[in-house]
UniProtKB/TrEMBL annotation:
Organism lineage string: Bacteria, Bacillati, Actinomycetota, Actinomycetes, Streptosporangiales
Keywords on record: Cell membrane, Membrane, Transmembrane, Transmembrane helix, Transport
Species the sequence originates in: Sphaerimonospora thailandensis
Protein family: Belongs to the AmiS/UreI family.
Record flagged with keyword Transport: yes
Location of the protein in the cell: Cell membrane
Membrane-spanning intervals of the chain: 6-25, 32-50, 56-74, 86-106, 112-134, 141-166, 172-191
Domain of life: Bacteria
Any Pfam family the entry gives: AmiS_UreI
Gene Ontology CC: plasma membrane
Membrane protein topology class: Multi-pass membrane protein
Protein name in UniProt: Transporter
Amino acid sequence: MSDVGLFYVGAVLIINGLGLLGKITPKGTAPLNFFVGTLQVVTPTFLIMTSAGDRAIIAGAAGIYLFGFTYLWSGINAVTGWPGEGLGWFSLFVAFTAVGYAAYLWQTGERVFVVIWLTWALLWLLFFLVLGLGRTGLTRFTGWVAITEGVLTAALPAALAITGLWRDSAEAALAAAVLAVVALVVLWLVAARTPVRPAREEAARAVAG
């Protein structure tokens, strides 16, 4: 995924997280989902068409579609009011694929992004539970996870890469893994303090990251 594309993935995850928390209406999240979703479909298509058969480029580009389809589908559901079960089950596919990408990146030595892809797998698994299985009690937790991952796994790494400050190492990956575990525990405790309201349940049926 390009650094610029990843930066805007961070933005849309934050917006969709706020939608899951009931701070933004589903229709209010739709424009950015369409903008970023379109970007994340056009970009990999261009990369694949100009890859000259380079399998590394194709493999990297193929993963971008997972995000593009999610955001476009989210935008469509938000505007039309269509049920979110299909998007939820697609999110399960994304979660499994993200684990596969983490394994692939382990072979290439991109240690920090191994951790990042695993956190994305968890987030899309939460989308599956909320949208596909109707576990609306997880809506608030999922919203907080989406916002946090939007910052820590997308916007911040992209900004560091764009400015030339990004560094990858085994030590950085270990620190990222520890931070991820601690953040999840804290977010679970924060989410557990406030029950899901009806507005959030409605958002959960229409919005995903």
